[in-house]
Amino acid sequence: MSLLLLSFLLIIPILLLLRRKRKPSKRVPPGSLGIPVVGQSLGLLRAMRANTAEKWVQERINKYGPISKLSLFGKPTVLIHGQAANKFIFSGGGNAIANQQTQSIKMILGDRNLLELTGEDHSRVRGALVPFLKPESLKRYVGKMDEEVRKHLEMHWQGKQQIKVLPLMKTLTFNIICSLLFGVERGKQRDQFLDSFQEMIQGMWSVPINVPFTRYNRSLRASARIQNILKEIVQKKKIELKQNAASARQDLISFLLGMVDEDGKQVMSEKEIFHNIKLVMVAGHDTSAVLITFIIRLLANEPAIYAAVLQEQEEIAKGKLSGEALTWEDLSKMKYTWRVAMETIRMFPPIFGGFRKAATDIEYDGYFIPKGWQVSETLVCVFLYP
């Protein structure tokens, strides 16, 4: 009897194992994960730098269909394509999707930036940033931006027979960012800032392998240098605000330092200020530079549109004194110019995509996406990262 019982006990695990094997597994999309860690990251990065990312995505869709698996930036990935996928992602997937970026972006910008925060922390930091960045607040900075544009044109455009637009637009947007966000004027500190910033953003989309001489490693070191510069700026502005030698409205850093809650406590910590200043820098730099570049290309290739924009600008200039700065009221008169800018954004979106995370287990179109997988939407597809 004991021998029969022992035999039965030994057979139970085997029966359970066989039953588990017969149970159908969750459906996994077709495709290959490629080389561990690297996967298809290098191919996508090459396509993005060559401005052929849409073609790269379309080739995968042609090969595997609208849903496929691959590996990007050190993580297994699911690519989902189509209007239904974009609607699902942009609507939040029924609260199934939360904010989260790739490891490289998180480490370069810092874990206290707005894209990484959730719940009360997200609301608190967003509430601190939005008042300064909304159009009503930006009205007072139109003259400062106009001054930067005038200086830029004098230095880099006037008298030149040939120019490269995109690099110059990146320089222009960076100078406006330095003036508007930090109050850092032209000089040695701004030049150091620019060199480190350009090196930092090169590794935003990269395989997160932190070894010497990699793009990711160089970006991390550049990010650390930027944070040290920001520390110096913050300490200087703290002293100026304490001595009433500066206004809390003169730039973003001063504004954030001056924000306190009901108990008189600073709303954002210094670490949060550093990380979110880097976020605002990145968010406003390449996107603006790319958009302005495409607008200039459009005006160069479409004489009728160029003539209409020029006429509108000349009408506004007639009402200004020589050298007088633009105002918010002048900008409100640029209705045709604004429509040209909006149409350019529609035709040539300056952002390839962003990243989120599955907050719960998700079933989509017959496939299973486990909780914790990262989600990235692009203009032509949606990427999902575990």
TrEMBL record:
Residues 1-17 form the signal peptide. Its main location: membrane. Gene3D superfamilies: Cytochrome P450. InterPro entries: Cyt_P450 (IPR001128), Cyt_P450_E_grp-I (IPR002401), Cyt_P450_sf (IPR036396). Its cofactor is heme. Pfam families: p450. Keywords: Iron, Metal-binding, Oxidoreductase, Signal. It is a single-pass membrane protein. SUPFAM superfamilies: Cytochrome P450. One of its GO terms (molecular function) is iron ion binding. It is found in: Membrane. GO terms for cellular component: membrane. GO terms for biological process: sterol metabolic process. Belongs to the cytochrome P450 family. This is Taxadiene 5-alpha hydroxylase isoform B.
